[in-house]
Input
Amino acid sequence: MISLPTKIEPPVQFYPAFLNTGDNFAWFQKSQQLEWSRGEINMYGKSILVPRDESLFGDGLRYQYRGKKIEANPWPDFLLTARDRIHALSGYLFNFAVGNRYRTGKDSIGWHSDDFPQIGKRPAIASLSLGSTRLFKLRHKESGQTVDYHLESGSLLIMLPGCQEDWIHAVPKTARPVGERINWTFRPHVDAVGNGEQKPDDIPRPLLDI
Ligand SMILES: O=C(O)CCC(=O)C(=O)O
Output
């Protein structure tokens, strides 16, 4: 008998249509109107621009991001609403959001896991996508197994505790003509949530009209 390799399921929850059409459209437009900047990283002693635009919003926190201390801007209303709805749905508390804007298929984010000490030991990270659909890849660190998601506008993918420890993720470049995409990752910050594994709170959750 041939034994097939066991497929490992990534610890994620995926809601392909988290946003209704109105919010989907309006929040994409509002996101486009925010201030974006193209960050730099140091590679082999050289400073190079990252292939995407970024922005940061939070509860008045200082975030250590790629070796730099960045002050989070105060939340725009729609992002606070998004954060609160994600909390109501999942039970996870987030006090920080990192935005990535991919203007064309040339913009991307390489393989990485979000395992900075500032976001706690086993964080849950919720990723809300707006605009053009892009491929999001997860790769298991040990087995190399990959799982693909097509993140359409209005979809929500929650990377549960354990995902950053055991998996890496990426949004690769694409030669396909694609329009702009904006992604928000909602994250915890140890300044506000402590340093243990992130757990859903036990507040009873209302049913959501999403
Ligand atoms: O754009 C995405 O879907 C992923 C963003 C991401 O990997 C990150 O912010 O760490």
